[in-house]
Amino acid sequence: MKAELGLEFPILSDKYLKEIEEAGLKDPEGPKSLRGFAIYNNNGEIIESIQLDSFGDEIANIISNAAEKTAN
């Protein structure tokens, strides 16, 4: 996916929801994530976490936003 989108930053998958829970994106009603994203700094700390129900519709804006945040 990273190569397909031409991204220069890593993408994280979280099978066990550890990072999702830390980012405040775990669904309180079940073992799944809410739609959204988190951006980490180079030290692995979350610098932004956003729940976004229209995630699929907003993916282009999310990628641009993430690229800007990681450039700083």
Describe this structure in words.
This protein is an alpha+beta fold and 72 residues long. The chain has one domain. Helix content is 31%, strand content 15%. It contains 3 helices and 2 strands. The chain has a two-stranded antiparallel ribbon with strand order 1-2. A hairpin with a 5-residue loop joins strand 1 and strand 2. It is globular, with a radius of gyration of 12 Å. The two termini are 23 Å apart. The mean pLDDT is 81.
Based on the model shown, name its key terms.
alpha+beta; two-stranded antiparallel sheet; single chain; 3 helices; 72 residues
- Helical residue percent? 25-40%
Estimate nothing, just give the exact number of structural domains. Answer: 1
Termini gap: 23 Å
Q: What integer is the average pLDDT?
A: 81
Number of strands: 2
SSE topology string: HHEEH
Explain briefly what this protein structure is:
With 72 residues, this protein is an alpha+beta fold. The chain has helices at 2-5, 18-22, 59-71, and strands at residues 36-40, 46-51. β1 and β2 form a beta hairpin.
Fold topology:
Elements: H1 2-5, H2 18-22, E1 36-40, E2 46-51, H3 59-71
